[in-house]
Amino acid sequence: MSKKLLGSIRTKLFFALFVIGVVPLTLLTALVFDSLRQDFNEQMTTELLWQANTISTSLSVDDYLDNTSHTVFLDDIQAVISHRFIIINVKGEVVYDTNDIDSGKMYSSTEVLRVLQGLDRFIVNGGDDFITVYTPVHDTNTNAITGLVLIVGDASEIETTIVRLRSLIGLFYVAILLGVMICNLYFSTILTQPIKKFLYHIRRISQGHIHERLTIKGNYEIEAIGEAVNTMLTTIEEIDHSRQQFVANVSHELKTPLSSMKVLAESLLLQENAPIEFYREFMEDISSEVDRETQIINDLLTLVTLDQTENQLNLSAVDVNHLTEQVLRMLKPVAEQKKVTLEIKSYRDITALMDETKFYLVLMNLVENAIKYNQPAGKVTVSINADHRDMILKVIDTGIGIPEDSVSKIFERFYRVDKTRSRDTGGTGLGLNIVHKTVLLLGGTIKCSSIEDQGTTFTVRLPLTQVVLPDEL
Predict the structure, then answer these.
(1) Which residues are within 8 A (CB) of 183 and not within 5 positions of it... i.e. 6 or more apart?
(2) How far apart, in whole angstroms, are the C-alpha atoms of residue 408 and residue 417?
(3) SS3 assignment for the chain
């Protein structure tokens, strides 16, 4: 039998039904046979005892065993009792044998001696072929033991009955096995049909037909698996579409600066004897496009790093307040250039165990975006607070805001609310996606709320995992 056949549901179902249906029946039958044999033996023993007592009572007369005139009486009893019985006197001599085989012989077995000596009221010996009962005969006047009755029952009839019952049970076994096979074929077909259909669709999907959907009807578990696979396929399609869109966006974003540089370079080549100022202006534009290309590549490398599953966190004790002040101090010249005021609101000193580099990346991107998309004479407020479990960071600006239908999309790669305005500010469309992935990597959450022409608020919650006291650093 092949491994594939042994591992099939149909084979396992057959063995399961066999074990459930046949094995308990076999054990039950064995118990029943044993119980029947015991009951038959007890019934025969009871019958033999009753017959032996009947004969013993009939023989309990004075000088019976010395009086041969009662032979006719015993012959009458023999006609009624079907079993062989033997009458033995107190000396151990056989005075009557229904089969006339042991008449006149002496019986000196242990059972005969014990009964004649009055040590046992009766003795029963059981075997596979015979059951023997020894019962004393008493004198009615003196109650003395004058002999005994030995009656022998043929137990082979019990085995004959048991064998007959076994034959009937054997036929019943055959019927059970046939029933098991029929049930196996029926139920295994019902159970395996949805699975075969499921495997067919899985093979189709593995061949690239990810747009197909499973419509499997069966038991609840099979339908649940089908629904889970359909959900997985939808997610795969979305990921595949996102990948294709990402590749297209990357190609476009990388191509745009190169196209600009090519146009500028060709313009320079077409200008003969152009003044040095003209060359300087064009070279500055080319340098700006190179910087833009470099920024896109750096952001892409950052995303690749964040997407790696083996990305590890370098945990250390971070003074959140100090790090926030440091970021604002670095971005102050950029804010002053746009006439934007930077403000920090710290409600308590926070020292937390986190990856300082990645948190710095989140803070730098959020504050830089708030400055870029702010209005002249606007304001950026960074709020720091904490509860017993999380650190809460809010970056609030009074900028141009985000349309309501775009708020849920701003964390997507290369998504821009206004492409023209983003290019003017030097954005790559990857900054917020980097922030989102970094926050998730740190085990936190990020939310955005915005009103057009009034401002935007980014709220970041990061777990404090462990608050490290200054003494412990």
Answers:
(1) 17
(2) 11
(3) CCHHHHCCHHHHHHHHHHHHHHHHHHHHHHHHHHHHHHHHHHHHHHHHHHHHHHHHHHHCCCCHHHCHHHHHHHHHHHHHCCCEEEEEECCCEEEEECCCCCCCCECCCHHHHHHHCCCCCCEEEECCCEEEEEEEEECCCCCCEEEEEEEEEECHHHHHHHHHHHHHHHHHHHHHHHHHHHHHHHHHHHHHHHHHHHHHHHHHHHCCCCCCCCCCCCCHHHHHHHHHHHHHHHHHHHHHHHHHHHHHHHHHHHHHHHHHHHHHHHHHHHCCCCCHHHHHHHHHHHHHHHHHHHHHHHHHHHHHHHHCCCCCCCEEEEEHHHHHHHHHHHHHHHHHHCCCEEEEEECCCCEEEEEHHHHHHHHHHHHHHHHHCCCCCCEEEEEEEECCCEEEEEEEECCCCCCHHHHHHCCCCCCCCCHHHHHHHCCCCCHHHHHHHHHHHCCCEEEEEEECCCEEEEEEEEECCCECCHHHC
- Token pair for 148: 């005994």
Helices (H), 308-444: 320-337, 356-372, 419-425, 431-441
Going by C-alpha positions, the residue among 446, 413, 450 that lies closest to residue 429 is 413
Per the confidence metrics, is the pTM higher than 0.70? Answer: no
Model pLDDT for residues 46-92, shown as the tens digit of each residue: 888 888 888 888 777 545 555 554 555 666 666 667 788 888 888 88
